[in-house]
Structure prediction request, 597 residues.
Amino acid sequence: MAEGFDIDHLAKLARLSLTAEEKALYSSQLSQILGHFQALADADLPATIDDARVVDEAALRSDEPGPVLGAAAVTRIAPASRDGQISVPRVVDDES
Amino acid sequence: MSNVPSDWEVVIGLEVHVQLRTRAKVFASSPWGFGKEPNEQVDPVVLGLPGTLPVVNREAVEKAILFGLVVGAEIPERCAWDRKNYFYPDNPKNYQLTQKDFPVVVGGQVEIELPGASRNVMGEHKFIRIHHAHLEEDVGKLSHAGSGSLVDYNRAGVPLLEIVTEPDLRSSAEAEAFLRSLVAMLTQAGVADCDMEKGQLRCDCNVSVRRRGAEKLGTRTETKNLNSISSVRDTVIYETARQIRELEAGRAITQETRGWNAELARGYVLRDKEDAHDYRYFPDPDIPTLKISRETVARLAKQVPENLYDRQRRYVEKLGLPYTAASVLVNDRALAEWFEAAVAAHPANPSGIANLVANDLLRDLAASAGAAGAFDEAAPAPVSLASCPIKPAQLAGLVKLTDDGVISKQQAKEVFAEMFKTGRDAAAIVDAKGLRQNSDTGELEKIVQEVIADPAVAKSIAEYRAGNEKAINALKGPIMKRTQGKANPVLIDQLLRKFLA
Prediction:
């Protein structure tokens, strides 16, 4: 946690199973990445920098329905399917 | 309604998810609608396939802004989208596009009306503050079969407005009243249809209790995914009782996520998805921050309909309607506008028109159309006025005939039924059926004088002359009988008073 993150927790959230070597490697790389962000945060930037990423309403799409893939195409790219639906291991949060 | 002990107070906040009325999805052009075969309303953007980019639907943004204007909220100059990261198969991209820090709507309030002591008495009014509302995408639908689960992504990407209240609600009745009011505002502004059967409005309900007078809020629980007003009401009642029981037994409330089993009328703890709350939000790099022009806000402000309670106050105070009729009319904007069109054609008697609309017209419309289920199963379903055989001016015509004494109120019912059946004008029906009341004073005067001369009514006449006003009514029956019910009651009354004076 010294670098401000917990590699085990992050690995779990990302559904990654890491070896001790990988944990050491990624911890060091992640520290570097966070270091870059800290450098950005410390930089003296104009307050309006966000304008580079601002669009007006002309960038919106009109509410016109377009084509769809169709269930056959959708299920074809899924690892498993049944009756036009994508099949996954059972996930439930109903009353048990 | 609720059995909250007087030394306890319940505090409720709601998160209401509403599907906005658009044709295409919120970040993709895929159409959406209820009742389609699974995965038939999905395109590559919905699935987040490589190489695709989301683009925001203008109509979804405008519907969200319109909602904000309806509740008097602030529409910030900028709004932005974030990724909410979690692994769950209802979500094809492993993140949901939502607005965490810069929502499209900030603040606002919803006026609510609590039930009165009886149906014809208006209850207390309160304002419930809105914290914010953000525009996000709905997720897919899971169904469970045997050892596996099946995923249908038709719902994924449907525009969803999440409306978050401040913890201002203090009872199950207030929660119920809030949702009624909110649904009316959303549907009347055309923002959403709020059809419960189609899952177009779902609620998360935060409940905590505290000793009355305490300032600090108690630990709250969140019951998720309630899909009807009655479920929200029942959840509040259940959760309040459970929490008070726990605290009075000296146990602490655990901050937890719960589900509601409507069939068994009980709540349950949701098996905690591990780290479910660690969503690692970050700004979505695919969707730029959106600047909303003040011109757009001004244009949409013109579409905001009259607030239903402002309308109700106007009907009662300016038009003199009884509360019962006013409250029925204002719940349905089309019905209220229909009523106002009729009043415009005969401004002299709004109450007479309101009574026919709120009672006879609604009853016959409901009977002639199978009404669809709304989120609020207790409220009358909106009726379709499009197929109403009677036009507002025609109804006004009927009321005018009654007011002018051409037909009696009793006959008006008969004429109304005929109008609803045939769509003909009241006057034409009155003439065709020979219902026109006898207003020929000369003939009526003769009959009145004959009846007065009848010794059988002498006692009533004496009583009337002695000051008993009501005794005059005993003379009206025989006069009506002799005119086969066609005499104008107003005229009979006038003539009787004249001859007996």
